[in-house]
Amino acid sequence: MEYSLTPLGSTLVPVVAAVKAWAEANVEQVRAAAASQERPLGGGAETAALVAERGVVVAAEKVPVIESTLPTPYPQGV
Prior knowledge:
Layout: H1 7-10, H2 13-37, E1 50-51, E2 57-58
Antiparallel strand pairs: 1-2
């Protein structure tokens, strides 16, 4: 099977090339920034809130939870 870009998809080639060039030029800074933000698992509780488009916080009990059938990339208990 062979894949190819559509003419519209081909218009993204310069954009992707620019992002690639930026990433290659800044890889060390990106790695350093990521490393400075990392912390071990279990390093403390995190609180997150879902906010609707109008800026209203959505209560946790109003958010539906959908169980994934995809395999987890994490070991059991993590």
